[in-house]
Write the structure tokens for this entry.
Amino acid sequence: MSGSEKNLSGGRAAQGSALIGEPLLLEFDNNRLLPELYGEHGKHLSRIEQTLDVSLANRGNQVFVSGAADNCARAEQVLSALYAHLERGAEVTGGDVDGALRLSLGSNPNADADDTPEGAPDGAGVTKPKSGKTTRGNSNGKGTGRGGEKGKKLYGGVALRTQRREVLPRSSTQADYIQALVKNELVVGLGPAGTGKTYLAVAAAATMLVEGKVDRIILSRPAVEAGENLGFLPGDMRDKVDPYLRPLYDALYDMLPGPQVTRSLESGEIEIAPLAFMRGRTLSNSFVILDESQNATPMQMKMFLTRMGENSRMVITGDPSQIDLPFGAKSGLKDAMEILPKVRGVDIIRFGEEDVVRHDMVTRIVKAYNRRDATLPPQGRERRTRKADDKVDDKVDNTVDNKVDNND
């Protein structure tokens, strides 16, 4: 698909009992938004065609959709939702297209949208998307009628609006996670790397800070290296902790203007709080995020959970499969998961390999590791991981010792 007009008869035959029906005509009011909707050289339309097995032909502000009825309805969902995203001043990336496709494949394309008015707010920073016009035409592509309710249903009415971007869910689990971040005081996000646990938590924190619902953001993370010993780090406390918190900084700069982040860090409105130094504090009117919590000890986790003060929210994120603690030490995250499910008001969201939203290669890697780990007994799996980490530590220590001996 190059973005130019295509023959409507070029659609592939649908599988099974779903038959190719009359072409579906979508119309969009603002022509200036269409280049970004279609993508450079029509790459977004091509992605939709390949994933949903439909044929798309764009003529001006119209898109003709041919294929199986359900697949056409999903294409309508995706294009209407992305167009509404552009209407609100956001941009559409390849990741947004993939996320919309992932959501459409997991939804009922013919379900009715809810009764929430278009563009109406739904909680802290959460907005209901709008959509374009839809016409189910006859064989020559002409017809009458208005539609577009499909776009509102795709994201479930969930989107976080920050000063720099509108963050949309890219999987159904992410949609549940955003809803939990908005509604609950304590949320735990568990799952593999690349599922958006930390990024969405920072987006929710930035949204609530801008809206005045909290006074500050507190970011914390255990200072544990991933299989390496970095040794002495120069500088003050913030300089020493910064390398461990870089993913949180990256997410902050994605959500807020750079100068505001810098000012907020200097004023304490955004605070970097090493987990080891939080004992004795009461964190009130704050949005507190503990990242990489699988590397906290049970004592640290209990200490962190009991810091919550009035009008505060806490988010704990972690991947139980990537524990960097010394061999034999119990993860505070695993310990907390034996206790927190019994506590009222705690929402635990579990991500799976199907929720990975980074590069497709990351999804394949996570699946490959999971398949391998599934063949190992739990104790052997943990022992194998820890032994590998110990070997890395020994290799680093030997390298350092050799350098010292050579200098002597």
Residues 1-18, 112-132, 134-148, 384-408 have pLDDT under 50 and may be disordered. The CA atoms of residues 28 and 321 lie 46 Å apart. The two ends are 66 Å apart (CA to CA).
